[in-house]
Write a structure and sequence with these properties.
Layout: H1 2-5, E1 12-17, E2 29-30, H2 38-48, E3 51-55, H3 62-65, H4 75-78, H5 81-86, H6 91-100, E4 111-116, E5 126-131, H7 133-143, H8 160-171, E6 175-177, H9 181-186, E7 194-198, H10 203-215, H11 237-250, E8 255-260, H12 267-277, E9 281-283, H13 284-290, H14 297-306, H15 319-326, H16 330-358, E10 363-367, E11 382-387, H17 390-401, H18 405-413, H19 418-421, E12 427-430, H20 435-460
Length: 467
């Protein structure tokens, strides 16, 4: 997470202890030796990478200890007197203020321990993440990647530790807030920082989401396109071609099935079985070759930009030479994609139109090797993964390509795993058995696809609402 978001300070592992004596059992534990605020202790962890602990006797006032459950609320807090000294006009408003602040009930916990999360000295109750708004929105995006939900956050005012720590502890949900005056003055929180308390069970979800966003080009720092520019070249490719593709898919009654797999899983075998059952095939590998054939606009653009060095004597594209040029040059790779990808999209839509003209109720399979990796899921009604366990992939590679076991394992490991791909798709064909076993699965799938196509046709024709 620190690397993906480029955080300035360490995420803080935060744990409440039922016995203050347990502090001494934590490796590298420091007790500061003077009265501190909670936000001071947090700063020592996230800025100086200390492991620190405290009980109620170490903290300067009950404002901190009553929020994290180390003590109860004294009467001067409860009745609003203390709050009205600075933060409210009347004691009555101060009382309302105090009643609004979430607090961990007293009686269970005697101490608190904090350490940089990377050190992993204990199982935390939560993790505190300090980041600027741009980093935080990416973290929120990451948490919403799977099992989307609207995230609601709160700000009681001058008590950000209650909004983050106490609220997260009480609800078991992420809690984001604006650091208060006290946390900025005593905890050295910077002007541009926000704080989120995150349950540890959601850390993997956050990291996985950030990794997915990174692969899709959503990264920190966020590059700025320029308010005055024509954004045609700055928008992600899907923004330019996606709407036309989506409309092309949704406005016809054919069912679009995206078919993907991984190296040596047997995707072409399953595609042939589907073809035999009546499913026309559009192969993106074939399209990518067609659009750069001699005379095609994409090849003319490539030659104009890269020069004649990327052409063979007969005018065909020299793929090996072009690969050598773009292998280490991301800018030139992006330029090549800008020439090729829109033309592939056009060729794809043209073939869809041809198939639907022949059979409006077709089940069209579209073979895309890197469908998930390139985030093309949106183009299809349903997704099919042709699956083979990694060890079987390696065995097939050794048999097919004559490589040794180490090389085969490296080839399999260089791609997104088929196990991970399962979570993205609607259907899985296990192609690790006999051809007869695969065929039975394909035939059962075909029956399901026919029903889905009929449902889609009825929706398009207005006779049935989406389920």
């Amino acid at each position: 997470m620190e690397q993906l978001l480029r955080l300035k300070t360490f995420p803080v592992a935060f744990k409440l202890l039922e016995n203050r004596a347990d502090l001494s059992a934590i490796p590298y534990m420091r007790r500061v030796g003077h009265k501190s605020t909670l936000c001071q202790l947090i700063n020592l962890v996230r800025s100086f990478d200390w492991t620190v602990g405290a009980d109620d006797t170490d903290m300067v006032a009950p404002m901190c200890t009553s929020i994290i459950g180390l003590t109860g609320m004294p009467e001067f807090l409860r009745d609003g007197t203390f709050r009205s000294i600075i933060w409210t006009k009347t004691r009555r408003d101060g009382e309302k203020y105090e009643n609004a602040i979430p607090r961990i009930p007293p009686g269970k916990y005697q101490a608190v321990a904090m350490a940089p999360l990377a050190y992993n000295p204990f199982d935390p109750d939560m993790v505190l993440i300090y980041a600027n708004p741009a980093q935080m929105i990416l973290l929120i995006n990451a948490l919403q990647m799977v099992d989307y939900e609207v995230m609601q956050f709160f700000c009681v005012g001058e008590s950000s530790c209650s909004d983050a720590i106490a609220r997260c502890h009480l609800t078991g949900r992420p809690s984001l807030t604006i650091p208060c005056f006290g946390e900025r003055r005593y905890g050295h929180t910077q002007d541009d920082e926000l704080v989120m308390a995150l349950p540890p069970a959601m850390l993997d979800k956050a990291v996985n989401g950030l990794e997915t966003l990174y692969k899709r080009g959503i990264r920190y720092p966020i590059s700025m396109a320029g308010a005055e520019l024509d954004l045609g070249r700055a928008l992600p490719g899907a923004y330019a071609t996606g709407p036309a593709m989506i409309e092309g898919i949704r406005n016809n009654t054919a069912l679009m099935l995206g078919v993907t797999g991984s190296i040596a899983t047997g995707k072409s075998t399953v595609s042939r079985m589907l073809e035999e059952l009546g499913s026309p095939l559009i192969d993106f590998d074939v399209l990518s070759r067609i659009v750069v054939e001699p005379g095609q606009p994409a090849l003319k653009d490539i030659a104009a930009y890269f020069g004649s060095q990327v052409l063979q004597e007969d005018g065909a594209l020299d793929r090996k030479k072009l690969s050598e040029i773009i292998f280490t040059d991301m800018e030139k790779r992006k330029k090549l994609e800008s020439f090729v990808h829109p033309r592939i999209g056009e060729a794809f839509l043209k073939q869809v139109q041809e198939h639907t003209q022949r059979n409006p109720d077709a089940i069209i399979q579209v073979s895309v090797p890197l469908l998930i990796e390139t985030n093309m899921n949106f183009m299809f009604d349903k997704l099919l993964l042709v699956y083979t366990p990694p060890e079987e992939q390696a065995r097939r590679l050794m048999e097919r390509d004559g490589v040794n076991q180490e090389m085969a394992a490296a080839m399999v490991g260089s791609q997104m795993s088929v196990e991970e791909k399962k979570s993205y798709v609607d259907f899985v064909i296990d192609n690790s058995g006999t051809p007869e076993e695969s065929r039975r699965q394909v035939e059962a799938l075909w029956t399901t696809l026919q029903g889905l196509q009929r449902d889609k046709a009825e929706r398009i024709k207005g006779r049935k609402e989406p389920s």
